[in-house]
């Protein structure tokens, strides 16, 4: 998961999306001009015209010029409008642990951020994207949205920039002029990439003009045609394109529309494929996003495409640029550009193969989910987490297929159960609950496995603070487990109820329920459930007053995780030991455990445990005479909690200790110094906060006027110090009253103040120290 918005300050283009840039200088400049004039700019144009690549270029130029953070959200793989906001939140690194609507969490987290948010491929989600973009830019004055879509979003204030094809040469142009046209430069760039010996001569001018004009300057069409430069001369290539397009223009005046040009070019690429390549192209269109060779062999083979030939055929499609290659640690994956994939979908539909290959796709990912469940604790846990992250879009498609019929819903329920840790580890609470609801509705009454997804939904609702839904799901899960005699599901119901008691500070009940659940997990050989419950059990026992036994249970849980190479639950077991020591034990041990958790975070990437850990470290610092460090860590922890959409005070055992620690810090430092240190911590990106917590770096001194507040906020703060009202400030600066209200809210929040007098004092002291 991204390191919050702060991590995007070092943003760079995705190497899978951006090769060398050719042309588009004018469009880049115009897009940047529009971004300076409007909070929402949409790049529009047909498929293949280069909207995505232009958006990358504009974003890179914007970041280089302004230093603003950039987040790029690709929506091509997303099919569920309900998942738009959670998907954006996930890219931004914001959590999903709040019962509040996801849009509120995102807006709150972005209100003080300077960010360019790129929403790519909005056309199939245009209504949802329009609503989301409008909501964000209205509520977040320093956030700008750059969208790409085949149509505008239709939002008030939106600036639309149609993306034209690349410039094409005119008949009769000189060779020098031809070689300066954008479309020609792109063709030469891509042709040279596939055929390093490719060189232009003056004799190439006429066929090159003909070729680029035939392709209408469409970048994707040019790139597909350039692949043929390996086998054909420019004249041969132009002649073949002429023949291909003559069918399209027969009996019509003029040239084909650009979307027909693109279709004709892809038709031509398809015609040049072998029979097996055409089959693989169509069948692979059932994948969403990327896929690996094992998946292609299992899903796409059969008939004229035997399994043993799939690798050879993949190689052929790579050679023709139908498939694109992506490298990941330990493997290679393949994907198609969206226009190419859509063409494959059409071909598969024409042959009547859609149902068969969507089912084969579902079956492959159901099998993958089963392997994950079997190997989660046995092999490379982090590798499995990474693999499921890469397969997330395909999991969504497979689960969606399962909602189509009751018999398929049974398989979907099993898939959800098999990958239950994925939703928890990744913090995908809203999405996990959505799939439970949809599959629960699709499944027939009394199906096996329903109790297991109901308790999962109940747990996800609990961590989001949605207690009515939590209780409802747990009651249903308990009833289903009892009716079906499923003791393992009943054990998980007890475990989730114990977790609720732990959050509610009823440690005696939590210890009792966790203990019963553990006995059932062990009776059924469920080691994952056993580990999950054991560290919670140890924490509950400890905080219920039996410190020695609680310490022993927690030590055993950590040791078992280490012995098995388990990483995720180990982090939580270590934090549980740290929390117990902080609340009732040895602060030095608590700090050491916290350090171990933070070092594990780099491998697991669980922001919630980071928030808890920074909170405990802040408390330890407050109680050991380090109030400045405590205030900085408190600020850093609150920043993490803000991004995950929750607060530690939801856990009642922490409420009084946190208040007491805050009192210690403010008494030792004084209110103004404490607020400054807190603001320094809150301004740290998470990775810097972790480095500071590990004492690997010091907080960097900041000029508050320059770095806490934006230039406009600093200007308004100085006018506030003059005693002007908000309306008077708006009149003086020539801006809307609502804008002034928003800026002053941000000033108070960033400086940690509650009134305008404090702002005036801050301005005076800043001037004195300048």
UniProtKB/TrEMBL annotation:
Protein name (record): Non-specific serine/threonine protein kinase
Keyword Iron-sulfur: no
GO MF assignments: protein serine/threonine kinase activity
HTH luxR-type domain boundaries: 702-767
Record-linked Gene3D superfamilies: P-loop containing nucleotide triphosphate hydrolases (3.40.50.300), Tetratricopeptide repeat domain (1.25.40.10), Winged helix-like DNA-binding domain superfamily/Winged helix DNA-binding domain (1.10.10.10)
Enzyme type, top EC level: transferase
Organism: Amycolatopsis roodepoortensis
SMART domains in UniProt: HTH_LUXR
PROSITE patterns: HTH_LUXR_1 (PS00622), HTH_LUXR_2 (PS50043)
InterPro entries given in the database record: AAA_22 (IPR049945), HTH_77 (IPR058852), P-loop_NTPase (IPR027417), Sig_transdc_resp-reg_C-effctor (IPR016032), TPR-like_helical_dom_sf (IPR011990), Tscrpt_reg_LuxR_C (IPR000792), WH-like_DNA-bd_sf (IPR036388)
Domain of life of the organism encoding this protein: Bacteria
CDD domains: LuxR_C_like (cd06170)
Pfam families assigned: AAA_22, GerE, HTH_77
